[in-house]
Design brief:
The complex is a heterodimer of chains A (261) and B (246).
Chain A lengths: L2 E4 H11 L5 E2 L11 E3 H4 L10 H10 L4 H7 L16 H17 L22 E2 H11 L22 H5 L7 E3 L5 H12 L5 E5 L4 E10 L7 E6 L8 E4 L7 E5 L5
Parallel strand pairs in A: 1-9, 2-4, 3-5
Antiparallel strand pairs in A: 5-10, 6-7, 6-10, 7-8, 8-9
Chain B lengths: L2 H17 L3 E3 L3 E3 L4 E6 L5 E5 L5 E2 L9 E4 L5 E11 L4 E12 L23 E7 L9 H8 L1 H9 L3 E7 H4 L1 E6 L5 E6 L5 H7 L6 E6 L6 E4 L4 H9 L7
Parallel strand pairs in B: 2-8, 9-10
Antiparallel strand pairs in B: 1-3, 3-6, 4-7, 5-6, 7-8, 9-13, 11-12, 13-14
The chains are: A alpha/beta (261), B alpha+beta (246).
C-alpha cells in the first residue's frame, strides 16, 4: 500500500526516519547550465494553466501518460523495491529511476541499470551530490547496466565488469528541462507542464536533503495545493510514496527529455 | 412331334404350372445396398399377384417388370416381404411372405460437397509503428499527439488491433554525430545511427516533426507521414496509409 506523508506536519519524522540521503542543494541558477533548458522561458505560452490542472491530471491518468504507468509496465511493477542501502546516493538512484522511466516511455528495451556506477561523480566516496550535475554526468558517461555491477550497493569500480564504462555509454541522457524554483506556484506549474508530456522528473527536497523521482501527481482537494506528489523513493518501499503539503513542492525538478542511442 | 405327344406335353406343363408353389421367389440372403429382384410364383390364370407396398420395395409398374419387385435395404437386418395372390374365381386371397436377411453395410453415399465458404472480409493490415518527434517541442504538441507519443493506453490499443509499437524517439537523439579529422586536418561530420533504427530514421530524417513511420508487420517498405492530429485520424491512417503517402 502506498505510504502518504504530510510533509507540512510530519516533515521532521520523515527526515529522522530516512536512513540515507545525499542530495545537495543546487549551486547553479535556473537556466544557467548547458544542456539544461529553462522550461518556462522556452514555452511561456505552453505552460498548463492552473485552472486546468484537475482536467489535465485526469487526462494523464485516463490515457496513462504519466511516467508511473510506463514504470509499472516495465521495470517496477507493484512490489518491486528500489533501495540505495546505506549509500548516500539518492541523487544516483533518483536519476536512474527517472532515466529508466524515460526509456520505457520511448519504447526502448528494458535494461536494468546500476545507479552505483555513477559513483565516479563523487570519487567513489559515500557522499551526496548535486542533481543537475548528476544529470550532466549521465549525459556525458551514461549509466552502466546492472549486469556489469555484481553488488548493486558497492561503489568500488574494481569489482565492476571490465567493460562497464564502455557499456554505460549506451545509456546516456540527452537534453534536460530545468524548472524555476523561485516561487512554489511556478515550480508546481513547471512540474505539471513537464509531467503531462509523459516526461519523468528527478526532484530534490532541501528540507529532506533527498533526491528521488517524481513519476505522477494526483488531484486531491483535501490537501494543500490540491496536489499529491507521487514519487519513486529508494528506501526499499514496495510501492511509490505520496507527499502532500506545501513542503511537498519540490525544491528542484529536472525533466529528462530524451535518452541517446 | 406327334399330336398326342404334344397334347400330353401341354397337359404335363399345365399340371406343372398348377402345381408350381405359390410363393415369393428370390434370394433369402442379400447384401445391404444391393438391389435384388423378387417374383411371385404360382399365380395362375384368374388370379392377380401383387406385392404389398413397402418402403423397401420398388413396385412402381412403370419401372419394373410386371409381377416383380425390386428389393433394396441400406442396413443389415431381417426383413419380411409380403405379397397377395387374389384368386378371382374362388374369391380367395392367398397371403405370401418371405424372410430376407440383409448382411453387411451399404456403402455410404458420398458426402455432398460442402458449400463454398463465403469470402472472408479482408484482414486489416497490421503495422510496425515508430514515432519521431523533437522532445524540446513536446510541450507544444496538442494533447492527442502527446498521447500518441507518451500514452501507454494508446499503445495498448494499437497492440490490441494487431499493430506493434516500436518506439517514440527524439529524432535528434537517435543519430550520434561526431567530427572525424584526418592527418591533413580535413574534418568531416560522421553521423551514426543504430542499425535497427537506421531505416526508420532515414525515412523521416529532414522531414518536419512530429512524424509517423510505419512498415508492414512482416517487413516491407517504410511509409512516413506527419503525425495525425487526432487519435481517430491516426487509426484512419493505418487503415488506408496509401491514400496520401509521402
Amino acid at each position: 500500500m502506498r505510504r502518504r506523508i504530510d510533509c507540512d506536519r510530519d516533515w521532521s519524522k520523515l527526515v529522522e526516519s530516512s536512513p540515507a540521503l545525499g542530495a545537495l542543494p543546487r549551486q547553479s541558477s535556473y537556466g544557467s547550465v548547458p544542456g539544461l533548458i529553462p522550461f518556462g522561458e522556452a514555452f511561456p505560452d505552453k505552460l498548463v494553466d492552473p485552472a486546468d490542472y484537475k482536467q489535465v491530471i485526469q487526462f494523464c491518468h485516463d490515457r496513462q501518460i504519466f511516467p508511473i504507468y510506463h514504470q509499472r509496465d516495465t521495470w517496477a511493477p507493484k512490489g518491486r523495491r528500489w533501495y540505495q542501502g546505506k549509500l548516500n546516493y539518492c541523487w544516483a538512484w533518483g536519476a536512474t529511476a527517472a532515466f529508466k522511466d524515460l526509456r520505457a516511455r520511448e519504447g526502448k528495451p528494458m535494461v536494468e541499470l546500476a545507479p552505483v556506477s555513477l559513483g565516479w561523480m563523487v570519487g567513489w566516496n559515500n557522499r551526496g551530490y548535486y542533481i543537475d550535475e548528476t544529470l550532466a554526468g549521465i549525459a556525458k558517461r551514461g549509466i552502466a547496466p546492472a549486469e556489469c555491477v555484481p553488488d548493486p550497493r558497492n561503489p568500488d569500480p574494481r569489482t565492476f565488469r571490465e567493460d562497464w564504462q564502455e557499456q554505460a555509454l549506451n545509456y546516456r541522457l540527452g537534453e534536460r528541462w530545468d524548472t524555476d524554483n523561485s516561487r512554489k506556484a511556478t515550480m508546481i506549474r513547471h512540474s505539471i507542464s513537464i509531467l503531462w508530456t509523459g516526461t519523468a522528473l528527478e526532484v530534490a527536497y532541501n528540507f529532506w536533503g533527498h533526491a528521488l523521482e517524481c513519476c505522477s501527481v494526483e488531484w486531491d482537494e483535501s490537501v494543500p495545493n490540491n496536489l499529491v506528489w507521487v514519487l519513486r523513493n529508494s528506501h526499499n518501499e514496495d510501492d511509490v510514496i505520496e507527499l502532500t503539503g506545501d513542503r511537498a513542492v519540490p525544491s528542484e525538478a529536472y525533466g529528462l527529455r530524451a535518452s541517446l542511442t | 412331334m406327334k399330336p398326342k405327344l404334344i397334347l400330353l406335353s401341354l397337359a404335363i406343363l399345365g399340371l406343372a404350372i398348377c402345381a408350381l408353389a405359390q410363393e415369393i421367389e428370390g434370394p433369402s440372403e442379400v447384401v445391404a445396398g444391393k438391389p435384388v429382384w423378387y417374383t411371385i410364383t404360382g399365380a395362375g390364370e384368374g388370379t392377380s399377384a401383387v406385392f404389398l407396398p413397402s418402403g423397401l420395395l420398388e413396385t412402381s409398374p412403370k419401372r419394373i417388370v410386371p409381377g416383380n419387385a425390386m428389393f433394396w435395404a441400406a442396413e443389415s437386418g431381417k426383413y419380411t416381404l409380403a405379397a397377395i395372390i387374389a384368386d378371382w374365381d374362388s374369391r380367395n386371397l392367398i397371403p405370401l411372405g418371405k424372410e430376407v436377411i440383409v448382411t453387411g453395410e451399404a456403402p455410404k453415399p458420398p458426402d455432398p460437397p460442402n458449400p463454398p465458404n463465403p469470402p472472408l472480409p479482408p484482414k486489416p493490415q497490421a503495422w510496425q509503428i515508430m514515432l519521431f518527434h523533437q522532445s524540446d517541442q513536446l510541450v507544444k504538441l496538442p494533447p492527442a499527439q502527446v498521447e500518441m507519443i507518451s500514452g501507454l493506453a494508446f499503445r495498448r490499443e494499437l497492440e490490441a488491433a494487431g499493430h506493434r509499437f516500436l518506439g517514440g524517439y527524439d529524432v535528434d537523439a537517435v543519430a550520434k554525430t561526431s567530427v572525424v579529422c584526418d592527418r591533413r586536418g580535413y574534418c568531416r561530420t560522421l553521423v551514426t545511427v543504430p542499425p535497427d533504427l537506421a531505416p526508420w530514421w532515414q525515412a523521416v530524417e529532414g522531414d518536419p516533426m512530429p512524424r509517423l513511420a510505419i512498415a508492414p508487420i512482416d517487413g516491407g517498405n517504410i511509409l512516413d507521414f506527419p503525425l495525425p492530429a487526432t487519435v481517430s485520424d491516426f487509426h484512419k491512417r493505418l487503415e488506408n496509409p496509401h491514400a496520401t503517402a509521402n
